[in-house]
Amino acid sequence: MPNLTLDSLHHVIENDVRRALAEDVGSGDITAELIPADRHASARILTREAAVFCGSAWASEVFRQVDPQISCQWLVKDGDAMKADQVFCVLNGPARGLLTAERSAMNFIQTLSATATRSRHFADLVTGTGVQLLDTRKTLPGLRMAQKYAVTCGGCHNHRIGLFDAFLIKENHIAACGGIPEAVQQARSLSPGKLVEVEVENLDELQQALTAGADIIMLDELSLDEMREAVRLTGGRAALEASGGITEATLRAVAQTGVDFISIGSLTKDVKAVDLSMRLSM
Questions:
Q1: What is the pLDDT of residue 169?
Q2: Is the pLDDT of residue 1 over 80?
Q3: Which of 137, 138, 188, 228 is catalytic?
Q4: What are the sequence ranges of the domains in the chain?
Q5: Which terminus has fewer CB within 10 Å in the chain: N or C?
Q6: Catalytic residue (choose from 64, 170, 188, 194)
Q7: Distances (CA, A) of 138 to 147, 166, 200, 269
């Protein structure tokens, strides 16, 4: 499945920002109205901690929607490493607009940079193994596309975007369909050409998924020895994805079993916002 790019996210970014401003600004920023409407100011945004940057498109859109007169000069690009106390953006424009947009813009940057930072950390742990680390659907509601883009800025990769673009047949689907062969056959009939992935819990189910012709087989909480055996049995007939119970401590060992992919929900759901600051000067 291809990674998301900014070129494909124009309307997503506009809508993300529109929702963010609607909940934050509402009927208007009454505190900003204390400042004369014709007063201009400049501002610098800096990070108080080391991080991988992501989110300039979302932040720029915040400032644009609040006041098109605001100019943004980005000193970094998505995917760049930042040091503590580094200034990464310089702003100029009406003071009211700068202050009204501040929180929403910072929310996007702190969250997306956190996702990119965590993704870079995990990607570094498997350097040289050839495995691809995948995100999951465990994202912040309403920010899936943004977070999945941030994952790619950190050096990891996108799994399916949602329930619509690929089949992921799990235990309950298998039970409801009457078995792995039946589930795969129905998927092929329902949407020819869509990727079909099957989750298996043991090597017997692996054989069933291989026989049924699954494109990808997810190895759910198999031991390292079972994963190595799965790689041997599969022999390249399907791609293998390891998932479930994988931690930082076990990640590299799993990568070294020979699986093609490892999916990690914590890339998006366990992030800690990057500590940022915006400093205004008149």
A1: 98
A2: no
A3: 138
A4: 6-119+272-281, 157-263
A5: C
A6: 170
A7: 10, 16, 20, 6
